[in-house]
Amino acid sequence: MEIMWSKTLRPGGKWSGIVGRGKLLRFTALEGGANLSMLLYNAWNPCERYNMPDTLKAQHTAYLTAGNVLMSDNGRVLASITADTVGWHDTISGYSFRHDIDRKYGVTRYQDERNEWFRSGQENFAVELVRNGLTLRDLVPPVNLFAKVSVDDDGQLIFHPNHCPQGGQVTLRTDMDLLLILSNTPNPLDPRSTYPSTPVQVDILPANPVGGDDICVTHCPENLRAFENTWEYYALRNA
Question: What b/e string do you get for 9-23 counting C-beta neighbours within 10 Å, with b at 16 or more?
Fold first, then answer.
C-alpha cells in the first residue's frame, strides 16, 4: 500500500494538521520506550473532540489496542485502531507540565539550548492548539501511544518502562475528518532521569472501506452504535 505522506517526530517534537476520513495513520517507534501523546478533534467542528471517559466506559477498558475506537463527546467514532503490535496504549496518565520536565530532567531554556531544550506535553499542545484557532480551554486528556500504565491492587498507577520495543507499531483509521495534534514528549509517569529520546515515524496511507465484519465495528455493541452515528453524520453532511 502506497504511503501518501510521512514524517518523523524527533524527541520533543510536535505536529498538527487536518487528516481526512478514510486514511490509515501508522505510528512506528524507531527506538524502544516511545511515548507519543495524541489529541483528536472534528476538523470542521472542534467543539467535538476525543472523550476519554466515554471511550473507556463504552468499551469496558482502561487502555486501548486493536479493535478499540476513540469516541467523541457526541458518541461518534473519530478513529479506530485496526492493527497493534504493542498491545496497550495509555489513556489515563495525561501529559507532562513544565515543572515536571524541569524537576526530572533539569532546567533548560530555548534561549540557551535552542531546539535541544526539553519540551513538555502541555507546551507543545498549547502551541498547536493556538495555531489551529483553539486555546488551552480546548485541551483534553490525550492518548499516549506506546505507553503502558496499569493500576495495582492499592489503586496506584504503575508505569511499565520496557513496554514498547524498537519497531513497535500501531495503526489508526480516521473515521471522521480530524484535526490531529501530536506531541513526542515524556509520559508524566516515566521514571527515567534522562529526557527520553525516541523518534516516532508517522505514515499516512489510504484505508479500505469499513465493512460490517470490521474488528472495530464488531468489538462490542457500543462500538456499532458509535459507527452508526458516524455514518449517519456523513450521510447527512454529504447529502
Answer: bebbbbebbebebeb
Distance, CA of 20 to CA of 1 (rounded, Å): 17
Domain extent listing, the chain = 5-237
Residue 128 to residue 135: CA distance in whole angstroms? 9
Grid coordinates in use for 158?
Answer: 504503575
pTM passes above 0.85: yes
Query: How many beta carbons lie within 10 A of that of residue 185, not counting itself?
Result: 30
Q: Any idea what the Cα angle at residue 223 is, between residues 159 and 151, rounded to 5°?
A: 20
Please report where in the chains the cell 495525561 appears, as a residue: 94
**Which residues, in sequence order, are bridge partners of residue 63?**
90
- Residue 140 CA to residue 125 CA, distance in Å, equals 10
Query: CA 211, CA 204: separation in Å to the nearest integer?
Result: 20
Classified as helix, coil or strand, 45 is: coil
Q: Within the chain, which residues score under 50 in pLDDT?
A: none
Phi, psi of 104 (to 5 degrees): -85, -35
> H or E stretch including 46?
none
pLDDT in tens, 179-229: 999 999 999 999 999 998 899 999 999 999 999 899 999 999 999 999 999
Work out the widest C-alpha separation in the chain, in whole angstroms: 55
DSSP H stretches of helix in 23-160:
52-59, 98-105, 110-113, 121-131
